[in-house]
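Task 17 of the worksheet. Students: predict the tertiary structure of the chain below and write it out as C-alpha cells. Keep your answer in the requested format; marks are given for formatting as well as content.
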Amino acid sequence: MTLSAVLCGLAGALYVPQIGIINPSEMQPANSIEMAIWVAVGGRGTLTGAALGALLVSGGKSYFTVAFPELWLYILGALFIAVTLYFPRGVVGVLEFAKRRA
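Model answer:
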C-alpha cells in the first residue's frame, strides 16, 4: 500500500506541470470511471489491455468530443455496456481469439 501511495503521489506531482493548472474539477468521479472503462475495453488482467484500452478510449474521446460533444458520455456508456456484455475480455481477448483461430 505504501508503494501504491508513493506512485500515486509521483503521478500527481508529474500531472500538474504537464497540465499547467489543477482545479477541483480534476477530482471528479468521472475520471476514475473512465479509467475503469479503459481497462474493460482493452482487456482485463493484462497490462497490455489496459494500455490499449487507454489509447482507444482517449482517441475516441478526442474525436467524439469535437464531432459530437453532447453525445460523448452516451457513446462512452454504450461502449462500456457493449464491451461488458459481448467482449468480456476486451480487445486483447478478441485479438487472442483471432490468433488462436488462425
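Marker's comment: Residues 81 and 87 are 10 Å apart (CA to CA). The chain has a mean pLDDT of 88.
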